[in-house]
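Lab notebook page, bench 4
Experiment: in silico fold of construct C2
Operator: M.H.
Input chain length: 183 residues
Purpose: comparison with the prior construct
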Amino acid sequence: MIFEPSIESMQVVIALSAPEAWWPERMVEDINSQMPANGSVDAILSWHPEAEAIPETDVVSNINILLSNTPEDPASATKLLVTVKEKLIGHSMPNNVDIADFRTLQQMGKRLLGFYDLPELFSYLRECNESLVGGVILLDSQCLDEYRQTSNQISALFPGTAYLCFSTSPRAGSGLAAVIAIS
């Protein structure tokens, strides 16, 4: 017997924002074509190294998720934004990451940081002087053993009280797409 939801699920609408120079031209066109006509979205996922540099916008949103670290590679920053958005609006399995996970990180931490490279994340976590409070980690693992090993290595660098959510994403470059919260 197949069960179908009794309530039709609505599509989550997420806007992306980053300094214009970071975006490949084709990607900007794709993103702009996905914006609803009324300018209202469920969330804005933005990456601006300096909070003051966030552009003014007419987009109305319930949730603003701001990544504030300076990425080593701006192109990978835009790829992280797209990867997270696709995980949130897609139906890939496991479907265990939700916009609520990012809201929780935002409420628990003072800043959110983004990483699109596994060695860069490990380096940051090992040298971090700030309190790590949680993270959403999307791993690009082809096998269960690799996924388990990498998630265990990352978990070991967080305190036992941290809010961690692990999932997979076939688009996660260099092994992962991660958003972590610090206080």
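Observations: The chain has a mean pLDDT of 77. Helices lie at 25-33, 74-89, 99-108, 118-127, 144-156.
Next step: discuss at group meeting.
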